[in-house]
Structure formats: C-alpha cells, structure tokens
Amino acid sequence: MANIAAKKTSAKSPKQPVNSRAAGSLTSGASTLDWRKLIGLDDVKADLSRCLDTTRMHPVVLLEGREGAGKRHLATWMAARFFCNTPNLSQRACGSCSSCREVLAGMHRDVMILDLGRETIKTSDIEQFQVFFDILSSNAIRFGVIMNADRMTKEACNRLLKTLEEPGEQVRVILTTSRPLILPATLLGRCLRWKVKLPDRNIVTHWMRAKLNDLGRPAESEEKLKSWAMRLGFSVGNIAREIEENAANDVSAIQGEVRTLLTATRPVQVLQAASDLARVHKANVPEILGAVEWELSRIYSQSAVGGANPPIQDQGEALIRHRRRTLLNEIRRKSVIGKIVLNAQLVAESIGLCRWEKRAL
C-alpha cells in the first residue's frame, strides 16, 4: 500500500517512485490505522457494507464527521473489506487473512493512503495519487484514500478533480474530513457524502472504564467519566489519545478553570482562568466548549432542584443564560464552519465576561 504519511521526507530526498508493488512510503507520524479499534460504529459499518456489496459502488465516498469519530479507521476498513479473502461477507474485514494483514502493514499493492496528518496536502501529493491509478491492477480495482481532505490546497483540489471528473472503472476514492464546508462545491458534488456519527454516549463511557481498567488505572466515577468525555465531545479518538498520553489528571484542572469562568465574581478572575486554560492546560476551543456545556448543565440542574449556593443570582439569571446560549451557538457555528481560526483564550474570556456584558468574538 502506498502510504504517504505525516512528516514528509526532506526537500533534498527525492520521493520514491510509484511502482507495481507500492507507490512509495514516507516516514509516518500519523497514528496506526487499525479498524479493529473502532468503538460503537457497527451500524455505520453495516450501512457501508451494503454500499461496498453493490455491483456498482460509487467511485468517490466522502466520510465526514467530528474529529476523532473514527473516519480514518473506517476508510481503511472499507479498503480492507473490499479485498478481504474471507468468504463470509458478514465477517469482512477479518483482520487476519493475507489481504487484511497487508492493508494493516501498509503493503497492499492496490491500496494507497495519503495521510499527512495536519500538514497541507499539495499538488505534488495528488500527482502521486493520480500516478497510482494509472498503473494496471490484476484485481481490476484500486482504492485511494485521502485523509483530512480539507487540508488540500486549492490547486490540489483542482488537480484531484481531473481524476474524479471521469473516474475509470478501476478507480475507488475515499476521502475523510471533519470540515466538509472547507471543500469546494465542485468536489462535494462528485462525492457520495456519508455522515459518521459519534457512538452512543453510554457506549463511550463504558469503553473508557474498560480502557482505564486494562491500563491498571484507578476507577473513575460515572460523573467524572461523562465530564471527561463531554470535554472532548464524546470523540473516541480524542479520548483514546488523551488516555494514551496519560493526560487524565488534567481533566479536573480544566473543569475547575471552566467552573471559575462561569461563577467568578470579578472580571479579573475570568481573565486569569481563561489564560490558564489556554497557556497552562493547552485546552483548545472544542475542549473548552465541551467543558462549558457540561458545567452549565450541572449548574442549572442544581439550581432547578434547589441546590445550595446557586451561582447566578444577580443581573438577571435569564438574561445571562440567554447571552451564554447565544454566544455558545455563535462560537460553535464558527468552529464548525472552520473558516475562522478561533483563539482559545479569547473564546474563554468571552464566555466568562458575557456575565457582565455581551462580548463579540
């Protein structure tokens, strides 16, 4: 498998040529692609299986969904399932036959994965992609996968369109993105768009408990697991990365700073908490939004049942709630669109200071 991955070779090192066995393998800085790590996406896999089993599969499939939903693993699973040697269709991709092992090892001759992580995908990368499809295959079908397709430059998108305008019989392309609106309409119009939804929340917390138990970590309360998962948007990929990086201890610290944002009695406390979130805890905008939404739910639930020390009693609680809801919706909208890079510290300050006045981003 031609696996072009993050951390490209230096400018002085020429790229390896594409040949009948593989299209060149560059040093990988991306995480291992293993569909066996997918959690709670059985329904999605079943739907995609029906798509793959049709006599005329759509040549271009776009897997779109939130970051960490499992799109990269699903894309690899789709390629492996197509070439899997297991006779039983319901068991594909088995992960143990020769074809599946070749896909897992990045050695399958008819699968090319362009995975540059967060790096920009340039025209030269797409050119390698196109050359891969020009090589005849004994299987008559070749799968090309582009991870994080929204990171393609405008020129790279235009180059890819030349392949997608009249795809050959052997061409199958899978794209993944968490920001579909970044992609040009001309490209989206040639794709079968497939929404990858996050797993059920109870499945995520159950998986988290099992994962921590396997690592010998102390058991966490259900509330803390939900708070942790909420901060990361119930994204299994992001949660797994944080567990593997042993960053669980930061959860309570981030939640504590967010609590300060929402209950501070002086603006200076908000500014300090926002600074600590961005600079000390390195929290990004999605993490802050998830923690804020979870904390607001907890605060308002306490208030509804007459909890002690309601956090907001002055300035009109209804007005403050309205301001926060409006601001959160605006931040979420801009984050999803992705055309505006939001500063985590300014976002946190805006959320906290809207108690005193309505702040624009």
Describe this structure in words.
The chain is α/β, with parallel strands linked by helices. The chain has two domains: about 1-195, Rossmann fold, CATH 3.40.50; about 200-355, no CATH class. It is about 50% helix and about 10% strand. It contains 14 helices and six strands. It has helices at about 40-55, 70-85, 100-105, 125-135, 155-165, 185-190, 200-215, 220-230, 235-245, 250-265, 265-280, 285-305, 315-335, 345-355; strands at about 1-5, 60-65, 110-115, 140-145, 170-175, 190-195. Strands 1-3-4-5-2-6 form a six-stranded parallel beta sheet, with helices on both faces. Helix 4 runs parallel beside helix 5, helix 10 packs across helix 12 and helix 10 crosses helix 14 (about 345-355). The longest helix has 21 residues, at about 315-335. The radius of gyration is 23 Å and the shape is globular. The two termini are about 45 Å apart. The model is unreliable at about 5-30 and about 305-315 (pLDDT under 50).
Helical/strand content category: alpha/beta
Q: How many angstroms does the end-to-end distance come to?
A: 45 Å
Number of helical elements: 14
Strand content: 5-15%
Shape: globular
Q: Name the CATH superfamily assignment of the largest domain.
A: P-loop containing nucleotide triphosphate hydrolases
Please state the average pLDDT score. 77
> What order do the SSEs take from the amino end to the carboxyl end, as H and E?
EHEHHEHEHEHEHHHHHHHH
Low-confidence stretches: 6-31, 307-315
The CATH class of the largest domain is identified as: Alpha Beta
- Could you name the CATH topology of the largest domain? Rossmann fold
Percent of residues in helices comes to: 40-55%
